[in-house]
């Protein structure tokens, strides 16, 4: 049976702005079946953004859980992430979900996994999905060596990943918090 591949997600935090870019390509074997799946979302009235890779239904289940915790903990990103991962890890049904999530607010980027991890990356860059390692390497290089904004770095690093990874397209959907032009 051919394996479904899809989506590269990269997040960057710089100068008080967090940006998440997702390419949305879904591939079955060596065939592109969709180019524009949107796997980045605004949550909590635009105060939090999230991107996910993996099984879509699983990711939506996790996003709903995370959003519930955001509401319960008044948009406290870290607390909501920890509570989501605790439930993801300990619930018999949820622990089988196959997805990775990256979430961000105006202060930080966090990576969440089903093995119980909530990781705040040292360099304010996180990536996941088929081309995640390429996007992360590109984002780190751009962050360290250019004056580009978080939004520009996220978009360009996804384009670089698309030049290397056959499962990543260059069609980026980019979200940021705070939104460009707001504080």
What is this structure's SSE topology?
Blueprint: E1 4-6, E2 8-14, E3 17-22, E4 26-28, E5 31-34, E6 40-43, E7 48-54, H1 56-72, H2 77-90, E8 99-104, E9 109-112, E10 118-119, E11 125-129, H3 132-145, H4 150-164, E12 173-177
Antiparallel strand pairs: 1-4, 2-3, 2-11, 3-12, 4-5, 6-7, 7-8, 8-9, 9-10
Helix pairs in contact: 1-2, 3-4
Describe this protein's structure.
This protein is of the alpha+beta class and 183 residues long. The protein has one domain: 4-Layer Sandwich (Glutamine Phosphoribosylpyrophosphate, subunit 1, domain 1), CATH 3.60.20. The protein has four helices and twelve strands, in the order βββββββααββββααβ. The strands form three sheets. It has a five-stranded antiparallel sheet. It has a four-stranded antiparallel sheet with strand order 11-2-3-12, with helices on one face. α1 packs across α2 and α3 crosses α4. The radius of gyration is 15 Å and the shape is globular. The mean pLDDT is 89.
């Amino acid at each position: 049976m051919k394996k479904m591949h899809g989506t590269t997600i990269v997040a960057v935090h710089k100068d008080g702005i967090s940006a998440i870019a997702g390419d949305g390509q879904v591939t079955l074997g060596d065939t592109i079946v969709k180019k524009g799946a949107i796997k980045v979302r605004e949550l909590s009235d635009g105060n939090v953004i999230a991107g996910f890779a993996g099984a879509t239904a699983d990711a939506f289940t996790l996003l709903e859980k995370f959003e519930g915790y955001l509401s319960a903990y008044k948009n406290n990103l870290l607390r909501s992430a920890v509570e989501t991962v605790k439930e993801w890890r300990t619930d018999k049904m949820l622990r089988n979900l196959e997805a990775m999530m990256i979430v961000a607010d105006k202060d930080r980027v966090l990576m969440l996994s089903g093995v119980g991890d909530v990781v705040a990356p040292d360099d304010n860059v996180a990536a996941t999905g088929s081309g995640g390692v390429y996007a992360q390497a590109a984002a780190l290089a751009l962050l360290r060596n250019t004056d580009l904004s978080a939004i520009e770095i996220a978009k360009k690093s996804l384009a670089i990943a698309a030049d290397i990874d056959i499962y990543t397209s260059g069609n980026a959907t980019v979200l940021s918090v705070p939104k460009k032009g707001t504080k």
